[in-house]
Amino acid sequence: MYLSIFITICLVVGAITFHYWVLGLLLGVVPNPETDHSHFLRSLSLLLMIVFSHVLEIVVFALGYLAGVRYLGWSMPGFGGDQILSFFDAFYHSATTYSTLGLSKVPSGEAGFMTAMESLTGIIILTWSATFFYNILGRTPSKDDE
Fold first, then answer.
1. pTM score of the predicted model
2. Distances in Å between the alpha carbon of 23 and those of 17, 94, 124, 146?
């Protein structure tokens, strides 16, 4: 049980740290307000990079579920009996949990703890990304605005 809690905490801290790093990199890529740039291309590139970072975070949590089931004996009902059969099952569960859609069955025990912590982490990071995107686009003028 303590190992499961430790792994979950490491995944949460890792996701937050990774996202902080990604947003810092994106902040350095944003064009200077005095330079000419396309609002559309800047918006599209920022959104694609943010979405890609979220997908990577979801993949890491999915790998955490797979490791928990395969090596720690976690039970994940609703995924082919008591086991997650494939990476895509784990990815689906992780994506619906991370985005707080809640379309997946909620496991109990250690997997349930990780599910709850991923949901909390996901909603915070998604809100963080939306705020970052809004602030970046709202603060820099573009040549389209002239």
1. 0.85
2. 10, 22, 14, 27
